[in-house]
Automatic annotation (TrEMBL):
NADP(+) binds at residues 8-13, 69-72. Its main location: cytoplasm. Residues 163-267 form the Pyrroline-5-carboxylate reductase dimerisation domain. It comes from Vreelandella subterranea. This is Pyrroline-5-carboxylate reductase. GO terms for biological process: L-proline biosynthetic process. Belongs to the pyrroline-5-carboxylate reductase family.
């Protein structure tokens, strides 16, 4: 990838993507990250050898791809302060903010921009990210390819042609690493209750999650069949799964994902004013 990429914001999600990009072979010199405090950038620069800047406009004035990676609540101020530079330079805009539509981002940046909305997740850091992407009408095929290449460097990419579907992507992958971390926490706690040392329990639970995900990815069987294959009739797994079904775990998961998508919609209304 020969494009210069600038990340506005250098927090959890930006540093996960940057880490993944560098591991995938992108030249650190082609990546710039900005944040208000030099102290926050110093660690990133030392660790990853990338360029850093505290001045968003200075960074944006030299870039081909501008990744907006600040919290949604400050996006308006950040975009409006960047609009002159963006209007002059016309970089491809990639916003990773939850619940902020492309038209609003475009308007805050002065209008007429090629805007890709991306919903990534933090496993991008280890090259196992899952990103949903949506492009507005200004995005050319070549720019779509750039966005695809960028996010495929850190995981899988799924394009959606309806922007509203990014809220579903947020529920199933953007926010979802947290669901699995919760599961790992709960399994470790329960295994400790059953007498295992915490570190042993954690290693076993993590390896099992990894193994199950890898099997689900590589097998031609669906998850329901893979689950059934673990459940010997009258055996142990049946008891565990029956307990989860009785406790309505599926409904809990569905309700949680509905709440997640609804929050993305509400944020959009709150922040864009329409
Ligand atoms: N975390 C996640 O798993 C995911 C997050 N996202 C989206 O990514 C975006 C960032 O989230 P996340 O990384 O978690 O948040 P963080 O708070 O970790 O990162 C935000 C970054 O923006 C910096 N920042 C604040 N103000 C400015 C400014 N004026 N100019 C430049 N940088 C600034 C912050 O610096 P400082 O710390 O000094 O304030 C920080 O480096 C959000 O919009 C979120 O919706 C999307 C998918 C997943
Ligand atoms: O919780 C959030 O709002 C962000 C967006 C998706 C994951 N983290």
């Amino acid at each position: 990838m020969t494009n210069k990429i600038t990340f506005i914001g250098a927090g959890n999600m930006a540093s996960a993507i940057i880490g993944g990009l560098i591991d995938s072979g992108v030249t650190p010199d082609d990546i710039t990250a900005t944040a208000p405090q030099e102290s926050e950038l110093e660690a990133l620069r030392t660790r990853l050898n990338i360029q850093t800047q505290t001045d968003n406009n200075a960074a944006a004035s030299q870039t081909d791809v501008l990744v907006l990676a600040v919290k949604p609540q400050i996006m308006r101020d950040v975009c409006e302060a960047l609009s002159d530079t963006v209007q002059q330079r016309s970089p491809l805009i990639i916003s990773i903010a939850a619940g902020l539509d492309a038209a609003t981002i475009d308007q805050w940046l002065g209008g007429g921009n090629a805007v890709v909305r991306c919903m990534p997740n933090t496993p991008s850091l280890v090259g196992r990210g899952a990103s949903g992407l949506y492009a507005n009408a200004r995005v050319s095929d070549a720019q779509r390819d750039i966005a695809t290449q960028l996010m495929e460097a850190v995981g899988i990419v799924e394009w959606v042609e309806e922007e509203a579907l990014l809220d579903a992507v947020t529920a199933v992958s953007g926010s979802a690493p947290a669901y699995f971390f919760l599961m790992l926490e709960a399994m470790e706690d329960a295994a400790v209750e059953l007498g295992l040392p915490a570190d042993t329990a954690r290693r076993l639970a993590i390896q099992t999650a990894l193994g199950a995900a890898t099997m689900a990815q590589q097998s031609d069987k669906d998850p329901a069949t893979l689950k059934q294959n673990v459940m010997s009739p009258g055996g142990t797994t049946e008891q565990a799964i029956q307990h989860m079904e009785d406790a309505k775990l599926r409904t809990t998961i569905a309700d949680a994902m509905q709440a997640c998508a609804k929050r993305a919609q509400a944020m959009s209304k709150e922040l864009s004013g329409h």
